[in-house]
């Protein structure tokens, strides 16, 4: 479970518990811990300065470490790893799905594919890794969202489908953050429908 820019706060903890109640071993790594964390911060611009500067290699390495830890837990199917995340976590899900070999299914919640991750050889976006995503992929996006805009989502979907037959991009009549029940952007109908699609997707691809 990959968090938004706010880190692993209560909404992310609650969503992680919801996956656990579905029968999964669910883990949410705090990917901004090395920078001192962001949970105590309230200024979005200050948070973004930290979040958007985290090296891509660090994000992927710490995500892999979380996977490696989870695979050692009792009763865990080490060969059935899925990844999901919201907003920044959605775009990070795209990066993880295109890079880490353990991933067997990925569901990105309104993650902007154009978001650049600073890498050792330059910035890397979701468009750059689309060709590398070969696992089943579910994208959950809002028609009224402006980051990403629907045209970015459509472009990303087309790029994914050039290399992957198991791609489903679903647009909901909502804006950004429609699953975040602590925000004004929360849309109960879209959140409920998307959650069912997400859990059905993981049940099909990680339990079959």
What does this structure look like?
The protein has one domain: Alpha/Beta hydrolase fold, catalytic domain (Rossmann fold, 3-Layer(aba) Sandwich). The longest helix has 20 residues, at 188-207. A four-stranded parallel sheet has the order 1-2-5-6, sandwiched between helices. The chain is built from seven helices and six strands; from the N terminus they run αααβαβββαβαβα. It has helices at residues 10-21, 44-51, 56-70, 88-97, 126-129, 150-161, 188-207; strands at residues 81-86, 103-109, 117-119, 122-124, 137-142, 167-172. A hairpin with a 2-residue loop joins strand 3 (117-119) and strand 4. It has 208 residues and is an alpha/beta fold.
Give the gist of this structure.
The protein is an alpha/beta fold. The protein is 39% helix and 15% strand.
């Amino acid at each position: 479970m990959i968090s938004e820019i706010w880190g692993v706060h209560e909404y992310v903890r609650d969503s992680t518990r919801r996956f656990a109640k579905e029968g999964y071993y669910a883990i949410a790594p705090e990917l901004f811990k090395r920078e001192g964390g962001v949970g105590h911060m309230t200024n979005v611009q200050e948070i973004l300065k930290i979040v958007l500067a985290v090296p891509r290699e660090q994000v992927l390495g710490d995500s892999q470490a979380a996977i490696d830890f989870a695979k050692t837990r009792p009763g865990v199917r080490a060969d059935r790893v899925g990844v999901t995340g919201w907003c920044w976590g959605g775009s990070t899900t795209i990066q993880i799905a295109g890079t880490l070999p353990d991933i067997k299914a990925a569901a990105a919640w309104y993650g902007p594919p154009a978001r650049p991750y600073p890498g050792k050889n330059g910035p890397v976006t979701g468009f750059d890794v689309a060709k590398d995503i070969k696992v089943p992929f579910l994208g959950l996006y809002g028609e009224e969202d402006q980051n990403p805009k629907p045209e970015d989502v459509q472009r990303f979907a087309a790029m994914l489908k050039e290399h992957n037959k198991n791609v489903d991009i679903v647009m909901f009549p909502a804006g950004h953050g429609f699953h975040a029940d602590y925000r004004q952007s929360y849309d109960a109908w879209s959140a409920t429908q998307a959650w069912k699609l997400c859990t059905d997707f993981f049940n099909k691809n990680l339990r079959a």
